[in-house]
Each structure stands twice: as structure tokens, then as C-alpha cells.
Amino acid sequence: MDDYRGVSFWFDMLGQDVRARPSLPGPIEVDVAILGAGYTGLWTAYYLKTLAPSLSVAVLEAETAGFGASGRNGGWLKGSMAGEDMYLSSQPAERRETGYRLLHGIVDQVRAVLEREHIECGFKQGGVLFAAARYPEQLPLVRAHLDRLRRAGHAEDDYRWLDAGELNQQVRMHRPYGAIFSPHCAVVSPGELVRGLAQAVERRGVSIYERTRVDAIQGKTVLTARGAVRAQWIVPALEGYGGSIHGLAGTVLPVQSQIIATEPLSEAQWDEVGLASRPAFSDGGRLITYGQRSADGRLIFGARGGYRFGARPRDDFSLEGPESALRKRLMVELFPALSGVRVTHGWGGTMGMARRFAPHAVCDRRSGIATAGGYGGGGVGASNLFGRTLADLILERETELTRMPWVFSDVSPRRALRRWEPEPFPWLAYRAVQAAYVWEESLCRSVDASPWLKVVAGRISAALSRLLT
Ligand SMILES: Cc1cc2nc3c(=O)[nH]c(=O)nc-3n(C[C@H](O)[C@H](O)[C@H](O)COP(=O)(O)OP(=O)(O)OC[C@H]3O[C@@H](n4cnc5c(N)ncnc54)[C@H](O)[C@@H]3O)c2cc1C
Q1: Where in this chain does the record put each FAD dependent oxidoreductase domain (predicted)?
Q2: Choice between 344 and 434, residue whose per-residue pLDDT is larger
Q3: Confidence at residue 366, expressed as pLDDT on a 0 to 100 scale
Q4: What number does the ligand 1 atom closest to the CA of 38 have?
Q5: From ligand 1's centre to the CA of 139, what distance in Å?
Q6: Which of 127, 150, 268, 372 is deepest in the core (most CB within 10 A)?
Q7: Short-list 264, 261, 299, 262, CA closest to 278
């Protein structure tokens, strides 16, 4: 691929050819070698060079910066992460409060860097309207979720209930019953963020070598077809693509999500949809339907995942075909006013799911490996927190970041991380869960379905979700 514009709408909107930087010219030696130029790799490089400008840092990227999930995602930059309660609920109150403060602070941290580095990426902190209940059966689940957030110590200002009327003032979904609002979220144009970040780290003296695929790590050496890189520290930041690297295989499972973008909507159409302050939004279904109003006035709409047998990442998606058509159908169900609107882009990407369903940072001083990932659908913001954390760990700075329970120090990734079961378990589990969720949703949607069948479907879905965690 010479021009990467086709990777996603976000790359297409960059308005220029998206070309790769030069590859590794031959063997080199650096203090830190980072594998992967997505957000995790680039934030780590950014904070390393900010804290220790004399450090030599090289980023090795198989394709081009943002080719992975970082250039393809839905652009929700959240001040929260999957599994935060799992990590924090058992911690003493002070540490728990620090954890939530660090998570909520992500949006401000990113905003500060965007301003300092003059990165224009359509950043808008309109908060998030999430888990919007669309069927009566979803209401108790969403309310229970809000109760859990309250019990975890979040205040009314962090997460609050919007009834149907309040929700309707912000977004006009088809027959909503209510949703949760949180201010701890911004939306961004992911392509501009990742490409801007790559330029910012280069200005700080980081070398980014593209079209330089890492084949293996051997001790303190990274092997590529273009030469070996010797480094004191090696930072795999590969998320859903780490499966081929020895020691990381099986720790982060590649799963897919897919998105469409409409043509720019008219003011009249936006009046019918709402989202005037550009909050991110999602519905309360288990299949995860999410979106945002882009800076250039399109509806960006993502839904549902995918998983390929053998844990293979996937990069080839297209506007044509049933996958994008399904997302358009779901979009029109949610926003009937958009039935005649043209969909101009359809794409997808591979994210990474840790076996704990929560992200991690692992630092093994002995082998010189530091890695982070496993964000699921929540790495746009969390990668900033984990990039700062990896930089502190590598520089041996003891900070509140390095004391968080998601940090595993002085242990190898192999020992710190739970591994996914071998095939066919992940494939069968994915199929079963997907089928249960689709069945549950179709029953909720049907006015004729018997109430007890809806209860059974809900219980099966919940049981399958619990079984996996
Ligand atoms: C469709 C979709 C929608 C999403 N929506 C959201 C959202 O709205 N909000 C949110 O918070 N999160 C979202 N996510 C998740 C989020 O995008 C990711 O968590 C985040 O981008 C992960 O960043 P990363 O740098 O860790 O990984 P990646 O961005 O995947 O970067 C890994 C990089 O490694 C490179 N690479 C692969 N193999 C090699 C190799 N052997 N050698 C060298 N380089 C290699 C890849 O090319 C890639 O550039 C979404 C993900 C997808 C796919």
C-alpha cells in the first residue's frame, strides 16, 4: 500500500496522501525501542522524551503511524477504562480515589498536550450519553450500572441519570427510556490525533521507522528484515497485533469493530438528530452501538464486533457488502430521520482484549520489556494514562501512576498476564455470546415476544458474560 488514505474515513479526511515514513536503514542501537506507532507507542515516546530529552528512542512500525486501531476508532476519548472497578474496588479508599482521579484526569491531560503541540484533531469535550435504554428490559440493567458507579464512589457530577425527556433534549433517538451522562469524555478525529502525535514525537527527537515489521524479540534485540535494533528497553505497543511475538502470544486477543460515516448532514438534519454539543453516545444493548458527531458534521456510527478463528487481526473492510449495510440499518433504526442519508465510508479495525477484560501495564526490569494494552474498545484515552505510566516505569520514577493496581512491576508479561484459552474456545465463546446477544436484542425489539422468553434471553446473555470474566 503506497497511499494509506483508504484505511478509514479519518485517514481520508486528512486531505492529503497518507504515505509511510522511511524504513529502518539498517542495524541501530538505542536506549528504548518501541514496537508499534499507535497511541500507546507514541504516548510512551512522547512522555519519555519530555521527562528525559537525552534518551534515544526509536519507534518501529509495520505499516504507518495509526494503521492499527488508533487510526480507525470511534474517537471517544474517555476518562475511564474497562475493568477499573475490578482493579480499584478492593483498594484502600485513598488509592481508589487516586485511581478514579487519574482516570477522570485523562481528558485534561490530552487536551493540554494538544494545545502545547498545536495538534488540531476536532477535540470537543461534550461528555458522553451512554447505555441509552431503548427497551423497557434494558432500563433496570442501566439503572443497576449507575448504582454500581455510585457505590464505587463516583459523584452525581461524574455520572448522572437522564430521563427520556432530558435525553431527548440532547439526542433524538427512537423511543429512548433514559441514559447515563458523564462529562468525562471528549470526541476527537482519531487520524488527526495519531498523525499529529507522531509529528510531535519526531519534533522531540524520536525516530519513527515505518514499513518496518518486527519479527521477534531476542533478549535485548529486536529483529526485523531491515536490520536488528539493540535497546536497553523494548516496549511492545502492539495491542491486537502482538500474537506473533513470543512471550506476548495469547495475552491480548484481536477482536474487530466496524464503523460507517454518513455524508455531512444539513443543519435541518442535525436538528432532527440533536448532538448539538457533540457528546459521544451509545445505546444500552450488549452488542455495543456507539457514535459521535464529527467535527465536519457527519454521523459516525459503529456497532458490533467480529472475531476471526485463530486470533488473526483483520485490516480489510469496505463500504460495500453486508457489514456496512447492517450498520446503516442499525443507524436508521436509532435515528429514523436519517433513512435517506448517504453513507460515504465504511471501515473497521482490530482492537485488543485482555483475558481480564481490563488493560495492564507490565514492566520487567530484568529482561528490559515494558508493555501496555488490552484496552478493548477504550484505548483512545487510556493509552495516554498507560503511556505516562510506562515512561515513569522505564525511568524508574515512583509516582502515583506506577502504584496503581493495573501495574505489574518486576515480572514478565508471561507471568503477569492471564492467557486466553487455546482455540476453539475463544471462537466458540465468541459465537455463543454473539448469538445470545442478537437473540436477546431481537426479542426486546419484538412487541409480540413473550415476556418470560425475554427474561430467559437476558439471563442467558448475562450468564455467558459472567462465565467469560
Ligand atoms: C473500530 C474501532 C473503534 C474503536 N472505538 C474506540 C473509541 O471510540 N474509544 C476508545 O477509547 N477506543 C476505541 N477503540 C479502541 C482503540 O482504538 C484502541 O484501544 C487503541 O487505538 C489502541 O492503541 P494501540 O497503540 O495500543 O494499538 P494500535 O493502534 O492497534 O497500534 C498497534 C500498531 O502496531 C503496528 N504493528 C502490528 N504488528 C507489528 C509488528 N510486528 N511490528 C511493528 N509494528 C506492528 C500496527 O500497524 C499498529 O499501528 C476502537 C477500536 C476499533 C478497532
Answers
A1: 31-393
A2: 344
A3: 95
A4: 25
A5: 32
A6: 372
A7: 299
